[in-house]
Amino acid sequence: MTSPSDRSGANPSASNPSASNPSASNPSATALRARGAAALATAGIDAAATDAGWLLAHVLGIEPGRLILADDPTAAQAAAYDALIARRAERIPLQHLTAEASFAGVELAVGPGVFVPRPETELLVEWAARACADVAEPGAAVRVVDLCSGSGALALAVATAVPRAAMVAVERSPSALDYLRRNAAAQPSSVADRVRVVAGDVTDPDVWAELGVVDVIVCNPPYVPAAAPVSPEVAHDPAEAVFSGETGMDLIVELVPLLAEGLRPGGVVALEHDDTTAAATVDVFVADGRFTEVVGHRDLAGRPRYVTARRADPATVQGWKP
Ligand code: GLN
After folding, report:
1. Where does the record place the Release factor glutamine methyltransferase N-terminal domain (predicted)?
2. What is the reported pTM?
3. Is the CB of 267 under 6 A from ligand 1?
């Protein structure tokens, strides 16, 4: 039973024999961060110090880089931080606790019901920016589609990075669509005005009829093999955004022929895949027969991560499928 006099720390000199801080002042930001990092490391979290810093910065309403300069947190802030550390130690994703994710410089609302974007997918933004520079007349609009858009991470980051991108984001999950629409609306109008959201399944012919023929496609589909061991955090992502059949290839196999139809001749696609399915993904593009320049790419950790391909020109492809 806490009496009003010792509840808030407002009177730090009030007697409290069990207080862990004998000087009776609040712990510094640095001390709180170290304490949280130790708890997260004990919970098996690799990036424990980074996560503790993000959570403390979130509670203090500052950028993580400014923690070193922060005033000592109040007792209420310390309590809020400790509560977040306890939840993170239960392996709830960091981004669900802060309700936001940073992706290629774009801030996104995320939480239960939508896939948390991963840093390795940022490579597709860089690729798309280069692809957009190559595929159309300088200055002309570039038609770009993001399939399986989720929170809108790729769509919004590419639209931000490429001012002449006319972007369409396709997503079927109602809960993901809520985040996607909210995230699109939160961008500056110079970006938001160039992003159209299409609700639908990426294997639905009606969706493709609505998209028309485009210059560039990016896609981070569900691709993890159903029985693959995943971290406790991944269990908080919607399963339909993560897994795709026994080998992880179910959606990719269905999608590649649709990509060939949706890209103009010379148009290009980047498709993320599991690190166990690089060769299988390349094979699907090659076997389709309508792509050239099928190339596998690694992520910054050196793992095979995405395949790019160019829609061939019908005139130059042998055995062309009409
Ligand atoms: N690479 C992601 C993970 O680590 C899965 C991404 C996906 O299925 N698109 O869980």
Report:
1. 32-98
2. 0.89
3. no
